[in-house]
Amino acid sequence: QKEVEQNSGPLSVPEGAIASLNCTYSDRVSQSFFWYRQYSGKSPELIMSIYSNGDKEDGRFTAQLNKASQYVSLLIRDSQPSDSATYLCAFDTGGFKTIFGAGTRLFVKA
Amino acid sequence: DAGVTQSPTHLIKTRGQQVTLRCSPKSGHDTVSWYQQALGQGPQFIFQYYEEEERQRGNFPDRFSGHQFPNYSSELNVNALLLGDSALYLCASSGGLAGAGGQFFGPGTRLTVL
User: Is the Cβ of B36 closer than 8 Å to some Cβ of chain A?
Assistant: First the structure.
């Protein structure tokens, strides 16, 4: 079983719609969870971090964490073409290591 | 405020050669992690340096080694290069405890092994 599972996509949504990205993880001791955005040919950029169960909102982005189900998601409201990128889910293990998923490609159609 | 910087941007080597990649962390950060990212994959953790010591290592062979200097900058060395080492090598910095608050990535070094 992979440590982090993400649907590779591509996920295609129309401009203005809500994009929903999902991630499951296998490490039950993880306490810190992150979403990174990576544009083609660029390096990952941190967009959200979440540490406790529930929702965390930052502008158009909402991260949702359910530790019991080992599930984290990212919602992007009012999606824009500039949101088209690969979204990487990541978590910190109990040590000093961060595990990344392979990413979900998102396309926002104008 | 300078972010994370890496050099060189691109590098072409042949099998069996050795390579050194360099990274300067974001101002105020003292922890540096190195990742290897193959095309279409997420970053794979190589190791992390803190206080000039390797604090944790991922599943990479001993051909991969590193160093952190007193000014927190870091180097990644890869010996006996293989074709499979071709990838984007990313350096990420963070402050305080590993991963706390997430990491900031440099632009990466694209390594091609022929």
Answer: no
